[in-house]
Every structure is written in structure tokens, then in C-alpha cells.
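Hi there,

I know you've been waiting on this one. I reran it after we fixed the sequence typo, so this is the corrected version. Both the input and the resulting structure follow.
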Amino acid sequence: PYTPLFRSTGTCATCHHGNSRPVPLSGVIADAATAGGADSAVSLYRKLRERYYGRDTYDFGEGSLNAAAFRVARAGKYDEACTKFSASFALDPAVGTELNLGDCQEKLGHLSVAWHLFDDAAKKDTDADRIKYARGRAATLAPKLAALIIKLPDPTIVGLTVKVEGNPVPPAAEITTMVDPGDQVVEVAVP
């Protein structure tokens, strides 16, 4: 029988950094989404990030979670895709992710949410082409929305909060925000 000249034990650290399952993070997240849905995938991503961040086992850059979001979006599962893009944006608020989330929200029919994401991306970005793209997307949605105007007699009251459909809006003498047509819930609170 064959007798090895030497015996050694060790772990693989070059191709998949010691991970027993050599699958990119986007694949792990996509598998979790298929098995347990978007919430399960996002939960797993957060657990893996907490355990492995900075250890080279997985790439936790913007692209990893977004790749899983793209995969489910291509399958027409926009609810799951938006959940993943939202999680990615919460962890790393990159403009590219914001644009992808806006696109996803538009596909779900959440036009005012998409408009705000595109508008915000256009204000934050420094790349002229992406600014033009984001402004164009917002401009395309604007005719489908309504402008809600809120006038406050004294926006300087300490502790004053304003919310439109549960989303905080900075107090001002006149607030204009884009909303979907129909009834809106506006909350103004003073301590």
C-alpha cells in the first residue's frame, strides 16, 4: 500500500479563507432567501457580518448583499430584493445602493419612496453621470406624484417634530414633499 512521505493537517486559508463551504457571501444569502425568505437572508447576513467582518472569510462590501438582491430581482421577487437593498443601505449608505433601492421600490409601485431615494441620491452623489441619471429618474416619477405642502406657524419651537406617513421631515415654515396621490397622514408634535 501507499505510504505517504509525511503527514500534515491544516485548514484551507487561501481560496475560501477557512470557510468549510466555499461559496461567496452572495450565494449564501441567496440560498437563505430561497429557503427562508428575505427576512431570514437579512438576519443571516447580519449574523455573518458580526462573526466574520474583517477576517476575509466573506466580502461584506456593498456588492455582496446587492448581488443577492439583484439575483432575486431578476427572478421578479421585488419584495425580497427591496429588503436586501434596504439592509445593504442601512449597513453602508452608498449612493449606488440607494439608486438600486429606488429602482426596486418603483417596481413595487412605491413611487414616492422611489422619488425620494432618487432625489436624495442626486443631492449626495459626486459623479455627474449618476447625478444626471438620478435626477432623470426622479423627474420621470414626479408627474405621477402630488406635492404635499405643510405650513407651520412657528417651526422654531424646541422639540417640534413633523412626520409624513411616519417618516420624519425637518420642521420649516413651509414644507413641501412629494407623496403618492390620496390621503396622507401628517403628524406634528410638540413636547
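Quick highlight: Helices lie at 25-36, 38-52, 62-74, 78-91, 95-107, 111-124, 128-141.

Best,
R. S.
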